[in-house]
Every structure is written in structure tokens, then in C-alpha cells.
Amino acid sequence: MAETIRPAQIRVCEPLLEGRESVYVQDCLKTNWISSKGKYIEEFEKGFANYCGCSYGITTTSGTTALHLALAALGIGKEDEVIVPAFTMAACVLAILYTGATPVLIDSEPDTWNLDVNQLEDRITRRTKAIMPVHIYGHPCDMSPIMEVASKHRLFVVEDAAEAHGAEYYGKRVGGIGHVGCFSFYANKIITTGEGGMVVTNDPKIAEKARALKDLSHSPQRRFLHTEIGFNYRMTNLQAAIGLAQLERIEELAERRRSNALRYNSLLANVQGIRLPVEKKWARNVYWMYSIVLEDTFGISRDTLMAKLAQHGIETRPMFIPMHRQPAFLDQGLFKSECYPIADDLSQKGVNLPSGSGLGANVDFVCAAIKEIAAGK
Ligand SMILES: Cc1ncc(COP(=O)(O)O)c(C=O)c1O
What we know:
alpha/beta; Aspartate Aminotransferase, domain 1; 14 strands; binds pyridoxal-5'-phosphate
């Protein structure tokens, strides 16, 4: 008889909205500033850009639209190619396709799970316009060699920092290292606005272009005159009000994720067959998702572990399905017969454990359950 699965009591990620979120949202409601103009938009854009070491921040409706907006603001379109890791979330490839450009994949490093910089130059062609490094699960990419290759070949670097708010590369916060950085503020991210995103940059021209494009590209001379194809990617003041309150606590929220990870690392260190996430000596990993990879010596498959953890009321997620395995992209004639063994391996054996900033002592409960399952109890 099939065993019943209890609803999860420990979720993969839950937001912590314990600061001034409701005060600021109430203020929007009381003052009628509920649409995309208002002081919270301005304060959130300035504050978050500044946190990333950038002069300009342009809020958007999501991380996906932030990526699309950034690529569009750089003038990327048909005939162009953008290099992106095979092991990532589909939004990266979707954003490239929205511009009409072609995504070109690259495999990952086995330890950080980020794009393998040693494979970069082999993928560059005369059509390449940009590289999109993705800071997977909160660990920064090795940005210096990426920036060197980009400058040698005159390419843009569009950082996808959706999962890595506050992560650092040699002490520099991600998002502010490439030409443009893109963030998501979905509810499971380190800080959230419910739905939302932001493009950050230090380049005034890119910022101006992105700001125009996100608001339908009204002509500066005459409102309702449009000389370019723009989008409505406007975040609301209500969302930015939540974002600003979250931003006030961003370091605390990131540090809580880091202390979850330290606790997981120490409790799982001696469990046979579990590969733990790394933190390179030059990195500050913010562990957006605390993830492990199961080797054969663990004794049971990733999917079995997930099912058994669900019976303990513990929610988990499998790692991403790589881009060359997505029917939607294969149907477009993309990535046919391409091979990315590290991405495939992670996809089959990797699992995201509960990772929210409010997890606290539940880490011990999750680790005890994993050990019990591994021991066959
Ligand atoms: C790496 C990466 N890029 C982009 C996105 C898209 O963000 P959103 O869901 O806000 O559109 C996500 C979402 O989780 C992501 O993980």
C-alpha cells in the first residue's frame, strides 16, 4: 500500500516579512501611491543599487524581465549570440530568445556549479555579443577571467544575480561587477517584493535606455509618442515598499542563510555519499539554496531521498533541468545533440534542501531525517 505523504511543515524557502513591510505598504495605501510612481520605487532603486556598488537601479516586474530589459538596453537582438550556462533556470535562455538572439551553452564547474570559465573562449564566434554568468544558488562566478575574456573580445557581461543578493567576489558584491547586473525579488529570494526584479549598472547610457524601455519608451519630447518598441516592466510602489523594508535587513537575512549553511555543513560532513556545497576562498556564498549532490555511495537515489523527506514533512526541490534537456528549446531547433555532462550529473543527483532565512533549528531536524534515511531506518 502506498504510504501517505504529509504536507510539508518545513518549506524549501519562506520569506521573512518581520520588518517595516506593513508600515510602508500602509503608507502607500493611505497616500494613494499604489502604482509605479512614488517614493518607495525611488528609495528602493537607489538603496539596492548602492548596496550592489552601482549608481543606477531600474526596478522591473520580475527577474526574467530584468534579464530581458538588460539585454534589450544593450541592443542585443537577431543575429547575436549570448553565452549562458546549460545549468541554470530557464529564464536566462527565455530572456535571450525574447530579444531574437541565440543562446549558446557552456557546461559547469563540478564544485561551484557555475559556468566553467575555461570553456568560454571555445564558444565565442563572430556573432557573440554577451556572456551571461549566473551565480548559481548564491555562489559567485569567477568573475575576473570572465571580464578578461569579455574585454579581449569586446563583449558585454550581463550578470544574472537573481539567486545571489549580497554574494561577494573578492569582497565586491555581485551584480556590480559586469556591465549590467540583474536580480529577482520572487518570494523565495534573499530579499523579496513578492514578484519583482531590478537591473543595476554603473553606465548612465545603459541605465537611461533601460529606464525608457521598461516604461513603453515614451519619447522624452512628447508623451504618447513612441519611436522604439518598449515594454511595460514597471514595478509598483507597493512592491517597492516591501522591497525597501527587506533591504533594511538584507545583511541579516543573508547572514542567516550563511549560518544555516554552516550548520548543515557540520551536521552532514560525515555522511557518506553526500557532496556539500563549496565556498571558494575568494567568495562569500550566500547559500540562496543550500544544495547537496548525492553520490552512488549514499545508497539511495535523489528522488527516493526527496520522497522520504516529504514523509517527514520536509519539502525539497530537485536541482535544475539543464537547458539542453528542455523540450521547449529543443522544439525550436536549439541545443540538438549537445552534451553537457556536469549539468546532467547535477540535474540527476542534486537536491535543494530547506534554505529559508528563518529556518533556524529546523536544520537539525532535516539533517537528522537525512541520516535516518541513509541508515535505512
Ligand atoms: C538564475 C535565475 N535567473 C532568473 C530567474 C527569474 O526570476 P523571476 O522568477 O523573478 O522571473 C530566476 C528565478 O528563480 C533564477 O533563479
